[in-house]
Inverse folding.
């Protein structure tokens, strides 16, 4: 089931007099391909949950339309949409056992979907097996760990075989190790069931690692949509570049002058054909190459050994952050000596952005911005 | 933990309170038990130097006493009817109140009014409402004019008036009035507790239930009621305890005679029986009745707790 969002907008009117309305989601247009896992990504408060709730029907869009397949579901109530929703804090019914929790949506089915007791039980056990909680069916939610609760929540959402599965920050309550493990599991379950899935998170690593596509949002406005690698390699604007990647991209004040990208006195990249202007220069940490003759001069501060890689921490007067963080191969380390390090920059790891609009300016030889959203 | 060297200080601070508790709570309880187990105990006779043997005759006398059994029956009936009815009504009203946005606060205040109004005053108003004639003690020779607003309403809709509380009224009519009065009087406290319980239920359970396609009735019985479990248990247990101590409400409507003019004491309750025994200087009998009442309340509360522990805990 593909899901189509058309100019979806949600405005929360301000209750106080004179206050401004909150535009939680602004003109969201997107087609989620059938059977794919889409990561909705953005900082807290950017409208991810609101988008998700509109898809599931708990909130009505102020304007715009939602289609499941070719059917307009904008006016339908959640129960008629055939969606499964996993809440941020799971919202398992505390007074019911795991089994009762999973059975509950099945018991509510009406008309031709109605199931017999045996069918329901069979289905409950089936989905419990998928998420590997079939041992825990008689427990109450408070007797489960966070990870187990999360899987029960997924099982409950899967029980009635939804056409679309929606997950709202499902991993945010788990500890780091469990988070890693569970996100793989979500991926596995999604692959196994083939259900179109929307996954909300503010953790870019999480979204990048398991999504077929990611949607990056900021203050209710979609910034960029695309495959995780494509968006990472070719961000549409400064916000997207900064939001994706750990350690984050290094941002410098710079300018384009006579066909070169300048950071201070250093010409770090070719910019032929681009008019002179002031820009932001973003360089990914892995975009630095230690080179005694490299154009970019930085003051060496520290070298952090991370095993396979070495993280070189240095300073540059034009950097917007205190430190320039670069990651280089451990065997390159021999090139480090003295107080000043010099870097060459990989041409596909440097991005320039207009100083005012912060939109990306594609440098010669770089790929076009994939599926970028205009404006 | 307070260090043991410091503990005597804590005891000193507690002392005034402990002394008062001992004098006004602990000693009376002990004394009640003592008086209940002294044969034919009577305060005046004891003051006159008489001594009493230990025995259980106070209890057997109380249990053989027809009046006592009548009191027990009335009390039990009132409890068993009013607690479920008022709890269910309070549940419906608080769910309704919780689901409206406008007028929620003013309505809440209106529902709360009976709680802050004197029970006797309310009883007198109820008595006036259910009255059949101008005079409180109607006799057969009096000209019957329907003065009570309840009968006015009944007659307006073409019904025949009912003698609710006056001379010649039936036990059923009397009890109906009492049930209405007690239920109405019990609502505010229950609504207050249940409403605050409802407001503390996480809204996400309802969102989840909506996505799960649950109907309104199903949400009420499968989500709201179980999640209100602790509050409901509290309200029911305190309701039963209060119900077994019913007294003031009947005085409010029927006066100290505890019944209509032709059959005084008809609606007497356990507490009323204890007061009467005290008034006629039969402290032994009163004590025995008090201990029986205590026993009943204890058993009912234990049963309540047992049931609710099975249903409520999650
Ligand atoms: N019911 C609501 N009423 C008013 N404002 C809301 C409501 N729900 C969300 N918002 C606002 O909408 C914006 C987006 O919220 P949300 O979608 O929850 O963000 P996210 O899930 O990305 O953290 C926030 O500014 C939030 O304050
Ligand atoms: Mg959210």
């Amino acid at each position: 089931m593909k899901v189509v969002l058309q100019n979806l907008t949600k405005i929360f009117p301000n209750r106080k007099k004179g206050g401004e309305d909150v535009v939680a989601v602004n003109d969201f247009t997107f087609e989620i391909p059938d059977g794919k896992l889409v990561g909705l990504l953005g900082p807290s408060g950017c409208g991810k949950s609101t988008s998700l709730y509109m898809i599931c029907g708990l909130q009505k869009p102020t304007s715009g339309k939602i289609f499941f397949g070719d059917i307009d579901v904008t006016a339908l109530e959640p129960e008629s949409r055939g969606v499964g929703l996993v809440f941020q804090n799971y919202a398992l019914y505390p007074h019911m056992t795991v089994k009762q929790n999973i059975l509950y949506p099945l018991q509510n089915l009406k008309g031709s979907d109605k199931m017999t007791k045996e069918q329901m039980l069979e289905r409950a056990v089936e989905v419990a097996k998928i998420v590997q909680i079939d041992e825990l069916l008689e427990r109450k939610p408070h007797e489960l760990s966070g990870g187990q609760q999360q899987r029960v929540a997924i099982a409950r959402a899967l029980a009635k075989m939804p056409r679309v599965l929606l997950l709202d920050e499902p991993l945010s309550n788990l500890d780091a190790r469990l988070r890693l493990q569970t996100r793989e599991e979500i991926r596995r379950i999604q692959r196994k069931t083939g259900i179109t899935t929307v996954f909300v998170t503010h953790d870019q690593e999480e979204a990048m690692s398991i999504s077929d596509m990611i949607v990056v949002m900021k203050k209710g406005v979609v910034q960029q949509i695309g495959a995780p690698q494509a968006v990472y390699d070719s961000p549409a604007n400064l916000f997207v570049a900064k939001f994706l990647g750990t350690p984050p991209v290094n941002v410098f004040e710079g300018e384009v002058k006579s066909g070169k990208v300048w950071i201070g006195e250093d010409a770090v990249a070719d910019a032929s054909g681009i008019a002179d202007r002031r820009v932001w220069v973003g360089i990914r940490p892995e975009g630095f190459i230690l080179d005694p003759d490299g154009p970019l001069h930085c003051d060496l501060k520290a070298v952090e050994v991370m095993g396979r890689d070495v993280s070189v921490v240095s300073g540059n007067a034009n950097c917007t952050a205190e430190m320039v963080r670069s990651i280089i191969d451990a065997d390159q380390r021999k090139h480090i000596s003295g107080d000043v390090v010099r870097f060459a920059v990989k041409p596909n790891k440097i991005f320039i952005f207009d100083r005012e609009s912060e939109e990306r300016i594609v440098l010669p030889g770089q790929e076009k911005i994939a599926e970028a959203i205009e404006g | 933990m307070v260090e043991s060297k410091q503990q005597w200080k804590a005891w000193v601070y507690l002392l005034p309170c402990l002394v008062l508790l001992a004098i006004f709570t602990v000693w009376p309880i002990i004394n009640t038990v003592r008086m209940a187990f002294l044969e034919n105990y009577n305060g005046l006779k004891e003051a006159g130097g008489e001594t009493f043997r230990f025995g259980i005759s106070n209890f057997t006398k109380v249990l053989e006493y027809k009046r006592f059994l009548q009191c027990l029956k009335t009390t039990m009936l009132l409890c068993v009817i009013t607690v479920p009815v008022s709890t269910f009504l309070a549940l419906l009203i608080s769910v309704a109140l919780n689901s409206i946005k406008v007028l929620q606060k003013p309505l809440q205040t209106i529902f709360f009014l009976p709680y802050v109004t004197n029970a006797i005053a309310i009883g007198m108003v109820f008595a006036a409402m259910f009255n059949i004639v101008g005079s409180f003690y109607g006799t057969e020779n009096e000209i019957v004019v329907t003065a009570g607003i309840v009968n006015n309403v009944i007659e307006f809709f073409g019904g025949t008036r009912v003698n609710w509380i006056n001379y010649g009224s039936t036990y059923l009519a009397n009890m109906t009035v009492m049930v209405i009065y007690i239920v109405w009087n019990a609502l505010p406290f229950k609504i207050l507790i249940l409403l605050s319980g409802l407001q503390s239920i996480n809204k996400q359970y309802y969102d989840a239930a909506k996505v799960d396609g649950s109907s309104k009735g199903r949400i009420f019985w499968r989500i709201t009621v179980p999640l209100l479990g602790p509050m409901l248990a509290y309200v029911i247990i305190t309701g039963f305890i209060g119900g077994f101590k019913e007294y003031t409400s009947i005085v409010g409507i029927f006066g100290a005679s505890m019944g209509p003019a032709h059959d005084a004491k008809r609606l007497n309750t356990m507490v009323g029986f204890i007061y009467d025994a005290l008034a006629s200087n039969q402290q032994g009998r009163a004590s025995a009745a008090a201990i029986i009442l205590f026993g009943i309340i204890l058993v009912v509360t234990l049963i309540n707790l047992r049931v609710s522990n099975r249903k409520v805990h999650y």
Residues A 12, 22, 24, 42, 44-50 surround adenosine-5'-diphosphate (ligand 1) (CB under 6 Å).
